[in-house]
């Protein structure tokens, strides 16, 4: 479903260099995170609750500032305070666990608002792109519906469409199925799989271990603020000899 073109295939989409984040009060959440995401990779970010997955994503999306280290989005050092933050955010699509859509706006308005108001996309173009993206997930006929007329799964799929409006270089998905009725998880994960197949570059925090195993190209495990594992799903989830890694995955068997 992606139309990413012209990206340099040898250059990482995202590069983190020794990223550190301590919240006011002294909680050292990220203690030196270094990792790279290459074009078209889907990377699953795993770790216990409180291990810093959301914090890491917020630092990448500039919702939190890092205390130390650098984050590169393509060739841009986004930790440089002089950068244009809105321009950087337009290059990253984000979907959170919940509260993604504005309840008083219909689907089309929800999907187009940010692209028009924040990123300066012309209205007609935004409308056309939104309808095309909704069409691809079979939801064009819901363009006039309000969020409370949609299932949770449909709402999250609309939220993903909204995140794709600016054709971002990177899609951040933060536990997007955690608040869903189990029956609705599958349709959202199926959409993620389609994006992966279409070449979208994705970093997703998730507790859906079987999905991570079969759909991710790479798995990163965060434990106590550092990357404990970074490898293929098989290497990390099946073959790691690290007792803490095995302990973590044992909870999901
Ligand atoms: P995860 O997404 O892996 O569950 P988080 O990044 O949400 O982890 O949280 C990591 C740690 O940082 C937790 O101990 C959490 O309580 C703490 N934390 C998260 N957000 C804040 C904040 N805004 N201020 C202070 N502490 C925070
Ligand atoms: Mg989280």
Automatic annotation (TrEMBL):
Membrane topology designation: Peripheral membrane protein
Keywords: Amino-acid transport, ATP-binding, Cell membrane, Membrane, Nucleotide-binding, Transport
Pfam families in the record: ABC_tran
All residue ranges annotated as the ABC transporter domain in the record: 14-249
Annotated Gene Ontology cellular component terms: plasma membrane
A molecular function (GO) term: ATP binding
Localization: Cell membrane
Family of this protein: Belongs to the ABC transporter superfamily.
Protein name: ABC transporter, ATP protein, putative Cystine/diaminopimelate porter
Organism: Bifidobacterium mellis
Taxon lineage: Bacteria, Bacillati, Actinomycetota, Actinomycetes, Bifidobacteriales
């Amino acid at each position: 479903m992606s139309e990413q073109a012209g990206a340099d295939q040898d250059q990482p989409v995202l590069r983190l260099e020794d990223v550190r984040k301590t919240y006011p009060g002294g909680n050292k959440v990220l203690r030196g995170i270094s990792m790279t995401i290459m074009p078209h990779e889907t990377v699953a970010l795993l770790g216990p609750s409180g291990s810093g997955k959301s914090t890491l994503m917020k630092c990448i999306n500039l919702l939190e500032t890092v205390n130390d280290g650098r984050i590169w989005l393509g060739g841009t050092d986004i930790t440089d305070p002089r950068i244009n933050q809105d321009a950087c955010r337009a290059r990253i699509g984000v979907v959170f666990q919940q509260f993604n859509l504005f309840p008083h706006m219909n689907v089309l308005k929800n999907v187009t608002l940010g692209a028009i108001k924040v990123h300066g996309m012309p209205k007609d173009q935004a409308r056309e792109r939104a309808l095309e993206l909704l069409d691809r997930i079979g939801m064009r006929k819901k363009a006039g519906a309000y969020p409370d007329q949609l299932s949770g799964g449909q709402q999250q799929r609309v939220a993903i469409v909204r995140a794709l409006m600016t054709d971002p270089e990177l899609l951040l998905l933060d536990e997007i199925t955690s608040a869903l009725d189990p029956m609705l998880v599958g349709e959202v994960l199926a959409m993620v799989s389609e994006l992966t197949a279409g070449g979208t570059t994705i970093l997703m925090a998730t507790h859906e271990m079987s999905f991570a195993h079969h759909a991710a190209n790479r798995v990163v495990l965060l434990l106590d603020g550092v990357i404990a594992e970074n490898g293929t799903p098989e290497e990390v989830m099946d073959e790691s000899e690290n007792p803490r890694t095995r302990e973590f995955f044992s909870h999901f068997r």
